[in-house]
Amino acid sequence: MHKKQADAVAKTVVDAIEEQSNKIATQNFIKLEIATLYNKLLLSMLAIAGISLTVVKLFFWTKSLV
Asked: Could you read off the pLDDT of 20-32 as tens digits, one per residue?
């Protein structure tokens, strides 16, 4: 009987560790996704700023031709 109880306790402990490990892995994955989205947002903002700067430069360049 003690062997069965010990096995049951061991299984419960292993299951709890596995569940906690899965939660941590999920949290880390979510953090990684958020960081990736943030980086994409920053890159998009930089691209928009670059395009805007180019448009302004072209505007002043064409004005200087006139």
From this structure: 999 999 999 999 9
